């Protein structure tokens, strides 16, 4: 690359750049940070709203071609939509034993994915499930309310209580770094997965989330995932979150317990007498 | 919870009523929700209702019949009530063979005292019931259909208390056992066995009610939009301000609510008024014309709490449902075998 930018050619490029900057038509290198987000009453960026991803991360965090589903009766309706993946660099750095476990999870995904039982999805999975969630932002507390399973978690921005015990949605403590909401999530149990492809973690999971306003109707969501029992190094996912713009948008109930009961308890139902 | 009191408080009430021979004047004890005090306010001028609110109390939903028109306890009467009620409610003091509280003799006392967090005090107003209308502090008369519904529910509860739960499938079990709605989370919220707390959040355009019981966030729009057409387990809530009172109107319940015996046709109006730094008066009006012959209203004064709301992963930890069903199948099998032996 270096050799190309030599002599007259370099001078020409530089001149063009300077001209563009002077004219104000050149986007800055870090366009996201140049966006001036609307403010809440306390002067922080206003993240209130109903948000949802438009991707297939919940099927598989990594790049994947479309593939058949596992329930024959569902045909094309049950197939897995393709996706470009949301993992920075593409690879999830599993330790060798964990890589084998991921493979096993993938093979058993029809029965082993906790989503099937309507269990709370954990973090970060709650963010990119194919359901909306609402950010309810106040200066001291930010509530993340998810449509899926009615899961919810409170991000403590002020005084955070001690975390008593591991939980499904973890213990979230937040702060602002410029216009970015940074949430440190600990205390997650080992029972959730990252996606329907069997990507998983242990109870040593530590997630740092970053929510950055991108435009009036989009946020950039990033999550750094660290779990020394499962991964050889921290790794990162990122994706846009889009505002649900319908005038009447609201979270509806997806109390999925009743959709999982036949699956979970059907074998214990009284059989009609022979 | 109210039905426990329907059937089980009258004996105690007679004792207390007898102990308090002279009826005491109630004048001056009434605490008006309209009492003007300084409450914190939001930037938009509306009262700031935010925080964690605690609604534990042993004040019964219905006033014991023997208390007649007695609307408020004196301090001394309240102390007697608390002492007696705390003793009576103590599950560790109930011998299952003898029974007690709502448990019939020879039945099952499923939780010991360790699990309860119902509080041990009457409400701060010292009212003798949470129900304030009808004026007798008791649920209104039931409709004929309502009577059937209540009788069926009471009969099923009795079978459960006797260790014979109706459990051909999970659908025979109450929504609370299935972790679909919280026992006391409402709407409307009403004091129950434990997790009697919620956090209120206010943002421009919304109020959110986050109940600890079954981690439900009820997000209430304040922009005047119409009710949904779909039905939901927690109904569909819409809010507005009337002066300093937040009013939340809920319809479109899907089936039964978490309030004993109220059903899909329930129209609920909740009113939240912060009367001082530490008190949120929570009033709710229930109108289910299929169940009761007139609407009724209760007031639960809630107390500000410094405790956080924890995650209550009800369904995720619901080992009870599989056990109840497995137990019922084992009982079926035992009955079948006994019948075979009997026919030989």
Walk me through the structure.
The complex is a heterodimer of chains A (274) and B (344). Chain A has helices at 7-23, 31-34, 96-107, 109-112, 257-265, and strands at residues 49-52, 133-137, 141-146, 152-156, 171-177, 180-186, 206-215, 218-226, 235-243. Chain A is α+β, with helices and mostly antiparallel strands. Mean pLDDT of chain A is 90; it is low at 1-32. The longest helix of chain B has 25 residues, at 319-343. Chain B is globular, with a radius of gyration of 21 Å. Classes of the chains: A alpha+beta (274), B alpha+beta (344). At the A-B interface, strand 2, strand 3, strand 4 and helix 5 of A face strand 3, strand 4, strand 5 and helix 5 of B.
Major β-sheet annotation of chain A: 9 strands, mixed, barrel
Structural class of chain B: alpha+beta
Biggest sheet overview of chain B: 10 strands, antiparallel
Helix and strand element order of chain B: HHEHEHEEEEEEEEH
% residues in beta strands of chain A: 15-25%
List the helices and strands and how they pair.
The complex is a heterodimer of chains A (274) and B (344).
Chain A (H helix, E strand, L loop, with lengths): L6 H17 L7 H4 L14 E4 L43 H12 L1 H4 L20 E5 L3 E6 L5 E5 L14 E7 L2 E7 L19 E10 L2 E9 L8 E9 L13 H9 L9
Chain B lengths: L1 H7 L1 H10 L31 E4 L20 H15 L41 E3 L10 H18 L35 E7 L2 E6 L4 E6 L14 E7 L2 E7 L15 E10 L2 E9 L8 E10 L13 H25 L1
Antiparallel strand pairs in B: 1-3, 1-10, 2-10, 3-4, 4-5, 6-7, 7-8, 8-9, 9-10
Can I get a quick summary?
Chain A contains five helices and nine strands; from the N terminus they run H-H-E-H-H-E-E-E-E-E-E-E-E-H. Chain A has helices at 7-23, 31-34, 96-107, 109-112, 257-265; strands at 49-52, 133-137, 141-146, 152-156, 171-177, 180-186, 206-215, 218-226, 235-243.
Spell out the key features of this protein.
heterodimer, A: alpha+beta, 9-stranded mixed beta barrel, 9 strands, B: 344 residues, alpha+beta, 22% helix, globular
């Amino acid at each position: 690359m270096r050799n190309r930018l030599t002599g007259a050619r370099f001078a020409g490029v530089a001149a063009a750049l300077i001209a563009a900057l002077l004219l104000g038509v050149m986007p800055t290198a870090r366009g996201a940070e140049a966006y001036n987000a609307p403010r809440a009453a306390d002067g922080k960026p206003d993240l209130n709203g109903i948000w949802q991803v438009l991707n297939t991360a919940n099927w598989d965090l990594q790049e994947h071609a479309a593939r058949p589903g596992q329930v024959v009766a569902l045909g094309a309706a049950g197939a897995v939509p393709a996706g470009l993946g949301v993992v920075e660099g593409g690879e999830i750095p599993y330790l060798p034993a964990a890589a084998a476990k991921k493979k096993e999870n993938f093979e058993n995904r029809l029965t082993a994915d906790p989503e099937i039982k309507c269990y709370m999805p954990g973090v970060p999975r709650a963010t990119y499930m194919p359901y909306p969630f609402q950010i309810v932002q106040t200066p001291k507390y930010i509530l993340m309310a998810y449509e899926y399973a009615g899961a919810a978690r409170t991000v403590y921005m002020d005084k955070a209580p001690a975390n008593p015990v591991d939980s499904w949605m973890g213990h979230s403590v937040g702060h602002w770094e410029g216009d970015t909401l940074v949430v440190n999530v600990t205390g997650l149990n080992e029972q959730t997965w990252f996606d329907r492809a069997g990507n998983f973690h242990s109870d040593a999971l530590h997630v740092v989330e970053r929510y950055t306003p991108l435009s009036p109707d989009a946020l950039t969501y990033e999550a750094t995932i660290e779990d020394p029992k499962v991964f050889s190094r921290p790794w990162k996912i990122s994706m846009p979150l889009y505002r649900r713009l319908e005038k009447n948008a609201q979270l509806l109930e997806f109390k999925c317990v009743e959709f999982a009961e036949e699956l979970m308890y059907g074998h214990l139902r009284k059989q009609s007498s022979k | 919870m109210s039905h426990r009191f329907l059937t089980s408080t009258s004996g105690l009430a007679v004792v207390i009523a007898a102990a308090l021979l002279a009826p005491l004047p109630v004048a001056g004890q009434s605490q008006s929700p309209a009492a003007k005090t300084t409450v914190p306010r939001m930037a938009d001028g509306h009262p700031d209702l935010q925080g964690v609110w605690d609604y534990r109390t042993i004040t019964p939903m219905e006033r014991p019949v023997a208390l007649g028109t007695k609307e408020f306890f004196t301090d001394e009467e309240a102390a007697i009530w608390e002492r007696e009620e705390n003793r009576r409610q103590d599950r560790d003091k109930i011998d299952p063979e003898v029974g007690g509280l709502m448990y019939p003799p020879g039945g099952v006392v499923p939780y010991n005292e360790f699990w309860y967090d119902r509080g041990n005090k009457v409400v701060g107003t010292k009212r003798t019931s949470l129900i304030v209308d009808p004026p007798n502090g008791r649920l209104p008369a039931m409709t004929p259909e309502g009577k059937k519904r209540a009788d069926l529910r009471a009969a099923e509860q009795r079978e459960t208390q006797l260790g014979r739960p109706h459990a051909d499938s999970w659908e025979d079990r109450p929504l609370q056992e299935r972790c679909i709605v919280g026992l006391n989370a409402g709407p409307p919220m009403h004091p129950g066995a434990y997790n009697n707390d919620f956090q209120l959040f206010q943002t421009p355009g919304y109020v959110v009610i986050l109940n600890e019981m079954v981690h439900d966030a009820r997000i209430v729009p304040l922009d005047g939009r119409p009710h949904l057409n779909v039905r939901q387990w927690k109904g569909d809530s819409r809010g507005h301000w009337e002066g300093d009172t937040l009013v939340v109107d809920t319809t479109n319940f899907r089936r039964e609510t978490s309030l004993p015996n109220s059903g899909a046709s329930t129209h609920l109006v909740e009113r939240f008024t912060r009367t001082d730094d530490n008190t949120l008066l929570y009033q709710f009006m229930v109108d289910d014309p299929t169940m009761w012959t007139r609407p009724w209203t209760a007031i639960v004064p809630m107390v500000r709490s410094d405790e956080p709301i924890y995650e209550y992963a009800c369904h995720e930890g619901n080992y009870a449902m599989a056990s109840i069903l497995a137990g019922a199948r084992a009982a079926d099998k035992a009955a079948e075998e006994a019948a075979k032996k009997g026919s030989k």
